[in-house]
Specification:
heterodimer; A: about 325 residues; mainly alpha; two-stranded antiparallel sheet; B: mainly alpha
């Protein structure tokens, strides 16, 4: 198992390298440069721009720039964000907690409700309510996250003013316990918009898996051996039926990150999605690549975590 | 023993919905009551609620929503179809070739696929859209297709591996059938069910993506209508001008719901 884990780590590192190299190249191939907002003016002589580009080494060939970037990373230096006027590390340190909070809350909500609803409805697949849950989940997953955001802003937020629509907290708002409540209040809509489509997919996967496992031979054997129905359902069946959900969870991470970009933009959430969006729009090369690096590492770690959970749930995977 | 299938399959209904949407898009010039992109009367007819003359009302520029919805279907569904074609072709090629190729090439192709799958797709699209500036319809569709083939490649690789181990294909291989012929004559026909499921699922993923990009102003640009940018036309008062939001929403959700239902029904019927 140790060797397999080491191999997965190496593969993960390779994936991060490919992802970062791709984005590093793409953003440099895009028209414009980090100074276009300040220097795109007829009165600015070409030498000034050339000097600026040379100062940060952007006039060198891309492979050379990438090699320099990699050696800088090893020293823990992510570079300078031109658009924010601060080190990239500082910008990411400020944005990462907001996104982690959003993703963790949405993930817990999505997988919690998805697994329990799906497991129950899959086990009782013939009941009308169970069928309703499955069809309802199908409808929910057909509503894209930006539409959720739009509907959420339309309804509870704008019309009735029940939930705030922008930011993580009220400016100059309360502190202490009330401050925490204020933050939770701001979290509701973005988390719902992010979590609902994922919860719907998890529900359907869990439903299908539980339904199939119900008829499996090992369940019949357990029943014949006199294992209690409760234990069969929640130990034997659920653990087995978690496998597709867990493998989906790993793959879903990158997709969830796409959702984060949209949701953070709509709800003015100061996280990694906003950082990446703003970075791309202002051609802030170091900011974009630094953000992508963090996102890729997070995705790979998440996939590894899902793999480990998979090994726990399905002993066959340990020998694969 | 498989549990008996319960309930009515929604597949015929779903296929019907998609068919009607497609026909409406094709027949847009005959079904539309007004020109989709020209304002009718910006002073008198802006934000006109649904009526007999303007079936689904008008938007802030006094353009007829019903007509824009019909022509928007051309953009949204057309881009979806083209993107699916591109994604399916690329995905099938990579997946099937990886299955037929020597082990090192197989591993290389699939690890690169995994790596690309780890990049948030929207970020990738942003990088390109931000770089290339406003895209027209065809490049947008190609881009969506070029960034959406990885899931198909993985499914095709898995299924091809299974198929190549079955007696007919193993036999063909043992008889020395060259690989291009093996791919086209033996592998592709057996892959058809998998590809049909992948196509519907990819379509169900591309439609929200295109409409989302267009909603954010990065996809199809107004005055050209697409279901996504119709939503953005509601501006900051979506509640008072509900008709500008509700009908495109229904169109998007209906289409995606139908495609998802069809994909899941096909999967149940063909790939078990």
């Amino acid at each position: 198992m140790g060797g397999a884990l080491l191999r997965r780590f190496a593969q993960g590192a390779l994936v991060v390298l490919v992802v970062v190299a791709t984005c590093f190249t793409l953003i440099r191939l895009a028209p414009g440069d980090p100074f276009f907002r300040a220097l795109d003016d007829a009165s600015v002589p070409a030498e000034v721009r050339a000097e600026q580009l040379a100062r940060f080494g952007y006039d060198r060939p891309i492979p050379e720039q990438f090699a320099r970037y990699l050696t800088a990373i090893i020293r823990g230096d992510l570079g300078w964000s031109h658009s924010r006027g601060e080190p990239v590390r500082t910008a990411i340190a400020a944005a990462l907690p907001a996104t982690l909070l959003l993703v963790a809350a949405a993930g817990l909500l999505a997988f919690g409700t998805g697994v329990s609803l799906g497991a129950w409805s899959g086990w009782h697949a013939e009941r009308p309510l169970a069928r309703g849950i499955d069809h309802g989940a199908m409808l929910l997953l057909s509503i894209p996250d930006y539409l959720w955001a739009l509907l959420a802003v339309m309804g509870p937020a704008l019309a009735w003013g029940v939930f705030p629509v922008a930011g993580t907290h009220t400016e100059f708002g309360p502190s202490g316990v009330l401050g925490l409540l204020d933050r939770a209040h701001h979290l509701v809509l973005p988390v719902l918009a992010l979590a609902l489509p994922i919860a719907a997919v998890v529900t359907r996967l869990q439903h299908a898996a539980m339904r199939e496992v119900r008829a499996a031979a090992f369940i019949r054997t357990a029943r014949a051996n006199g294992v209690s129905e409760h234990r069969i359902r929640w130990r034997h069946a659920l653990r087995n039926a978690l496998v597709p959900v867990l493998s989906y969870g790993g793959v879903q991470l990158a997709a969830a990150l796409s959702g984060v970009v949209v949701i953070e933009r709509i709800f003015a959430w100061p996280g990694m999605g906003r950082l990446l969006y703003d970075g791309v729009m202002s051609r802030d090369y170091p900011l974009v690549v630094g953000g992508v690096l963090v996102a890729a590492v997070g995705t790979v770690l998440g996939t590894l975590g899902a793999d480990l959970a998979l090994r726990w749930a399905d002993p066959r995977q340990r020998h694969a | 023993m498989r549990p008996p299938t319960t309930g009515v399959s929604g597949a015929p209904l779903a296929a019907g919905v998609l068919g009607v949407m497609g026909l409406a898009a094709l027949a847009a010039p005959w079904l539309a009551t007004h020109a989709p992109s020209t304002p009718l009367d910006p002073i008198a007819l802006a934000w006109h609620p649904p009526s007999l003359a303007y079936r689904l009302g008008t938007d802030s520029f006094s353009r007829d929503v019903w007509s824009r919805l019909l022509f928007g279907a051309r953009a949204t569904l057309g881009i979806g179809l083209l993107a699916v074609t591109v994604a399916l072709t690329l995905g099938t090629l990579v997946g099937a070739l990886a299955a037929l190729a020597p082990r090192w090439l197989d591993a290389l192709l699939m690890r690169v696929t995994d790596a690309l799958l780890a990049i948030p797709r929207l970020l990738f699209l942003l990088l390109v859209v931000a770089g290339a500036g406003p895209l027209t319809v065809a490049p947008l569709a190609l881009l969506l297709g070029a960034t959406g083939w990885m899931t198909t490649a993985r499914v095709v690789r898995q299924e091809s591996g299974r198929l190549l181990a079955t007696p007919p294909l193993e036999g063909a291989r043992a008889l020395g059938v060259p690989w291009p012929r093996l791919l086209v004559r033996h592998l592709l026909p057996s892959l058809f069910p998998t590809l049909a499921v992948a196509a519907t699922a990819t379509f169900a993923a591309v439609v929200p993506l295109e409409s989302g990009l267009s909603y954010l102003g990065l996809g199809v640009r107004t005055p050209l209508p697409s279901w996504g940018n119709l939503l953005a036309d509601a501006g900051s008062q979506p509640l008072t001008h509900w008709w500008v939001v509700v009908f495109p929403t229904l169109a998007i959700v209906g289409t995606v719901f139908a495609a998802n239902t069809l994909a899941s029904a096909l999967e149940r019927r063909w790939t078990r």
